[in-house]
Structure formats: structure tokens, C-alpha cells
Design goal:
This protein has eleven helices and twelve strands. By secondary structure, the chain is an alpha/beta fold. The chain folds into two domains: 191 residues, Rossmann fold, CATH 3.40.50.2300; 131 residues, Rossmann fold (3-Layer(aba) Sandwich), CATH 3.40.50.2300. The strands form three sheets. Strands 2-1-3-4-5-11 form a six-stranded parallel sheet, with helices on one face. α9 packs across α10. The chain is globular and about 60 Å long. The termini are far apart. About 2% of the residues have low confidence.
Length: 338
């Protein structure tokens, strides 16, 4: 029994279930009580139940570490909930308790000291917004840990992440096969490990496909829907020619880009093709339905938990490993042949 099944029984979204089980605001008291009751009936270990002594091997903490909150925000809740569902399914089967911790990384050392005091059995770090230097500081943790949803070549660490570069190669090849001669990327002015990897994949794929590319092929916008919308408006006002296709670093950015294009009478996909990344639920509800990348979030979460539990059981230190899991290109209506 996971978050998805509880949501189906309660007749609510997975986001609502996660908010209720983790004590967050935004839902009614009646709905919260209903969800918690269902969770207890189905033997789902509610995070708040951790104060009740239960025989287990210890606690595994899923630490959502925020730096600025521009990438880890409410738009990404459906995405993160699938991570949680995957992690929780493994943790319960392995007789550990599970806790979710939100922490702002203004002072990384304070987080590390907090973990040293609590001494969890293991920590899964959601590192989406972290700088390489902050990832490097984690090596002073006294508990075994895994970092997920980011990856930096230069920082040795145990990572589990999506295979950004290989999927972006697939996007560029897909657009080129449909006769797109010019392809730009809408990227974030505030990068993360994943965004940097997508940029790298885009540059390499464009070179491999012999497509025209220079620094102007990267349209840098502020994070989020509004940032992408304003950034695309500025691009259009600059008078620069539109490419045949745009790859947006995530779906939320794609939604903002499409709004700006539509306001200027530019049709998607007739005038320009758009591809996003993340396969958020809204991607199949908007018009046109957005071509995007479906990330195997639950599988990534499960893999991170499995690798952490294996690491907990090791009696000696081993070399750090990197596990990259590929996503699926979802071909929809926002792309057409040129």
C-alpha cells in the first residue's frame, strides 16, 4: 500500500495525501483525518507515527534540502510524491521507519550537526537545488547517505538520478528526424545539477546532429512558470527569429513559453514545436498536449532506498557509485513534422 493507492481509496490526489500525511497546510481537517484513517487501516506508516515506539532497524530520513525554493516548489509536488512513494515501499519492507524532513540549506553545517545528533540509520538527500560545494559538505555526515535528483561529475558521492544526457539526445534526434533544422533550448538562469546535465546533453546532441549552435541557442529564463513566460516575451520582443523547435528544461517552463507564444499569435506546433521534461499531469491537459519526458520517479526512489539499505549493511567503505535511470520520451501534439 502506497500513496497512490491511498489516494484512490480516498478519492483525492497523491499531492493531497502527501500533504495530509506530512502535516502540511492546504487541506481541510476532515480530509486530513479521512486520509490518516485510511493510511492506518492499510498499515501505511504515517510519518507522524514515528513518535510511537515500534520495533524496527531505525529511521531512514528523506531530506528535502532547499536552497532557494525556486526548483523545489508546489509545481513539482506530483513529481516528488512519486519519489516518496518509491522510497517508502522499500523502507517499509525492510523494517525501517520513514520520515520526511524539509530543511533550508542557509547553513549546511547546521543540517549536518542535526543529523549527527539524531543518528538516523540512513539519509536519502533530495539534492535538486544544491551546489556542488554543498554536496561535498555532506561527506562529514556520520550516517550513510545517498544523493538523488542531481549529479556532479566532480564530486565523488553515491548518486541515483535520471539519465539526463541520453534522454536529451533522444529529444534532439526526434526533432531532427522530423526535419527541424534549428533547435534552441530554454534553460534556467539559476541552474541545478540536472539542468546543467540537460544543457550539456543539448550542446553535445546539437553538435552530433550537425545543427547550428552557439551561445544564443540557449535562452536563459528565470525559474518557474512566470520566469519562462517573461523570458519568452523578452525573446520575442528582441526580434530574433524563432527556431523550428524549442526544448524546455522542464514542463513548467514549457507552459510559460507556450503562453507567451500564444499571446503573440504564434501557434504550437504549426509555427514552432515544443518539448518539455518531467511529464507533469498538466502536460496531458493543456492544448496542445505537451511532448515531454516521463521520468521514472518511483523507480528512482526505490533504487535510492535499496542502495541506501545495502550501504547501511556494508561493514566497510566502498567506492562511490552513480546510478542513472533513463526516462521515456512521450510524443504528443506539441511537435509536428517541418
Amino acid at each position: 500500500m502506497g500513496i497512490k493507492e491511498i489516494a484512490e481509496i480516498a478519492g483525492v490526489s497523491k499531492t493531497t495525501v502527501s500533504l495530509a500525511l506530512n502535516g502540511h497546510k492546504g487541506i481541510s481537517l476532515a480530509t486530513r483525518r479521512k486520509i490518516i484513517e485510511i493510511a492506518h487501516q492499510q498499515n501505511y506508516r504515517v510519518p507522524s507515527d514515528r513518535i510511537v515506539p515500534v520495533p524496527n532497524k531505525g529511521t531512514i530520513i528523506f531530506a528535502r534540502l532547499y536552497r532557494h525554493g525556486l526548483l523545489l516548489n508546489s509545481d513539482q509536488n506530483p513529481f516528488i510524491i512519486d519519489y516518496i512513494d518509491g522510497i517508502n515501499s522499500v523502507v517499509q519492507q525492510s523494517d525501517y521507519s520513514f520520515e520526511i524532513l524539509d530543511y533550508h540549506m542557509e547553513n549546511p553545517q547546521l543540517f549536518i550537526e542535526t543529523m549527527k545528533k539524531r543518528q538516523p540509520a540512513g539519509i536519502i538527500v533530495l539534492g535538486t537545488e544544491l551546489y556542488p560545494s554543498q554536496i561535498e559538505q555532506l561527506n562529514t555526515l556520520s550516517s550513510p547517505y545517498i544523493v538523488m535528483d542531481t549529479y556532479f561529475d566532480e564530486i565523488p558521492c553515491d548518486y541515483v538520478n535520471m539519465s539526463n544526457i541520453s534522454v536529451v539526445y533522444r529529444i534532439v534526434e526526434y526533432l531532427k528526424d522530423l526535419n527541424h533544422r534549428t533547435i534552441f533550448m530554454v534553460t534556467s538562469s539559476i541552474p541545478s545539477g540536472n539542468i546543467l546535465m540537460r544543457e550539456r546533453g543539448f550542446i553535445h546532441a546539437a553538435e552530433r546532429a550537425a545543427l547550428p549552435f552557439d551561445e544564443k541557442s540557449l535562452i536563459r529564463v528565470k525559474p518557474g512558470f512566470q520566469g519562462a513566460y517573461e523570458g519568452m516575451k523578452s525573446f520575442l520582443q528582441s526580434g530574433r527569429a524563432l527556431p523550428d523547435g524549442l526544448f524546455c528544461y522542464n514542463d513548467v517552463a514549457a507552459f510559460g513559453v507556450i503562453k507567451a507564444l500564444k499571446e503573440q499569435g504564434i501557434k504550437v506546433p504549426q509555427d514552432i514545436s515544443i518539448v518539455g521534461f518531467d511529464n507533469l499531469p498538466m502536460s496531458t491537459m493543456m492544448e496542445p498536449h505537451l511532448s515531454t519526458v516521463k521520468v521514472p520517479n518511483s523507480q528512482i526512489g526505490k533504487t535510492a532506498a535499496e542502495k541506501l539499505i545495502e550501504k547501511i549493511g556494508q561493514k566497510k567503505e566502498n567506492n562511490p557509485t552513480v546510478t542513472l535511470i533513463s526516462g521515456q520520451l512521450m510524443k504528443r501534439d506539441s511537435v509536428t513534422r517541418r
